[in-house]
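User: I want to check something. If I give you two sequences, will you return the structure for each one separately, not as a complex?

Assistant: Yes, each is folded on its own. Here is the first sequence with its structure:
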Amino acid sequence: MRVGFLYPEMETLGIQYLSSVLKTRGHETKLFFDPQLFDDTITQNQPLKLKFDYKDKLISEIDKFRPDVIVFSVLSTTCEWAFHLSLTIKAKMDIPIVFGGIHPTLVPEEVMRNSFIDYAIVGEGEYALLELVESGFNKNKIPQIKNVCYKKNEVVVCNPLRAPIADLDTLPFPDKELFYEKMPYLKKSYTIVTGRGCPHGCSYCCNGYLNKIYNRGYLRRRSAENVIAELDWAVKKYGIKHVYFDDSTFTYDRNWLSNFAVHYKKIIGLPCFCWVYPTDVDEGLIGIFKSLNCRAVEMGVESLDERVREEIFGRVYSNSDVENALKLFRKNRIFCVVDNIKGFSDDPEKEVMDLVEFYNENRPNKIYVFE
């Protein structure tokens, strides 16, 4: 079958893995990419947005490709974009539309109430999508496909959830060509994940919900050898110059990380970036980072009000832990970005001043504030 994927604004590993699995079974895939120029999460300009709107071009490209199914990977921040485009596609083509990703996983029934969406996939999608495609969308087979939601007599039915993939090493490497064809500059920094899930259950993050629906069985990690094999393949195929580890928390398993760092230093050696958790940061981690040639990190602080941080966000550590981490990064010249969520304090003015004073004394390289 011919499978068309739609995605806006940036690269996503989710679609790359879906495509790789489909290709191993002989299916053809193609990405229809909307750069959302002047209408992304950072820059919005209505006149320029209209001038550089890609939707008509996307519809024309889809029509030429003649896919058997259209698949959207949807975040809550992109659902309106996906809804609008799905409605446009349905008005012009008689084609099944599938929604997957974290937004349909969180609210599948709400997503499926839209008449222009035929199927939703909850949770991990590689083998659910493969089975759905290979069913030929046969109504008699779909009730047996786990993770799939469909409509029966206008009623939304969600099939049971399958267990998460036990051995991530069995997955093919992600299909990078989908996005590299559209954005060749992505080859400079190779985005990769060494596992799936997160040991933490932060209230604002999808990993907390995934931990819940999978009964905390969602956290898994690839072998160090498998990750190194992918990176070695990427170096030889694309000549990558940098590695971007996109795991939600890269630093949670010190034993795995120590073993991985030995292989990485010997075989790869490229500068890299990763996401860290404050309580993971100590002199031992810094030593591992030196082996990894880690030049930059991003760390969620979220709030300096420890009550807000623990009771609302579900993150348990002290401001001293954050201070210690920042000192170590600064001492070892590791570029550090910190994330903060504003607006949950009982005293908004004090909240801002606390941030200013704390970061004036404990300086990161960049500060992000979300509200």
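And separately, the second sequence with its own structure:
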Amino acid sequence: MIAAGDPGAPAMPNLVTAYPKTALILSRQGLLAPLDDQFTEREIKDYLPQFIEEGRLPDGKLYVFPVAKSTEVLFLNRTLFDRFSTAAGITLDNLTTFEGIAQTAIRYHEWTDSLTPNVANDGKAFFTADSWLNIAHVGIAQLGGEFMTPDYLNIASTDFRRIWDATILPTLTGGYAIAGGYSSDLMKTGEIVCSIGSTAGILFYGDHITYPDNTTEAATFSILPYPVFAGGKRIAIQRGGGMCIARSSPEKEYAAALFLKWLVQPKQNMHFVSSTGYLPVTKAAFEKSIEQEIASVENESIKELLKTVMQMYAEYTFLIPPNYDRLDELSKAYETRFKQAALEGRAIVLRENQAASVISEHLYRAFIGFGER
């Protein structure tokens, strides 16, 4: 409301939470104070550099201070996966790459279909993602390319073709699910076995499966690092907003900055992140406090998540999302068109009994014009 200048919008408070795209609007209206003068160079070095850089706007100044971030991980229903693993010889190693997940999903669909030989085409999906756009964005970065530009999405590249093949082909065969809601909804009903989603969604997965006939089953979940395209670098997206200080008097701005420094100290920061699935923002929290939190936290899902986050902090680079004016428009259009293509292709495969590879090629040619200059 404040950023849009809506009638009846409240007055700007001394501290506000905002994503960079909203902060950019507020800063252009002269409502935000840059934070660079509130922190010494030594203090800034205490924070993860990627988290700091995300809060810098086009003028190069820091406006969005990181308080808690999230990334994406692979959530796995071990109860369902272990049954499949025993029958098919699939292991967790098959889930470290996107290509491996695609192959596993196709096999899972075939295996579940074989369990009811008298019912045709009732195999189940294995995987879905909360954001297919993020898979393309991060995947191309893993392969050394760039997906997003200020005016278009780079889908006419050999790198994107790898993304397409690893996501569309298993969808056309029934191994991937395309849904309108969150992946945790499908996980809770046993309709999929694994999904990629935000660490901040950890508490939505629960500890049991409720099947369509209303029967329930206890379930355990594993949380695995973000998959990598074969041969690519270990890169995962970073997400989340931060806190901004309103432009006011030097005294009020200083007081607000002092509060922020206290809020993100490891003790306070870990108390928040250990109950929400968010990531701490200081190097000290990652390198010292997380291990202590793992030892004391009672929620097993949070405990496993923190272990995975520690591994990713040591082994991965976090990708800073761009802050382009057209980003929302391009992102929403991509997600919509991708899902439409996937659903249309799956329907054709079922209706006309055509090979998924043939349908995928036709869909790709129709899709290729989207996102270009």
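Because they were folded independently, the notes below concern the second chain alone. The domain at 15-64+240-319 is CATH 3.40.190.10 (D-Maltodextrin-Binding Protein; domain 2). DSSP finds 14 helices and eleven strands in the chain.
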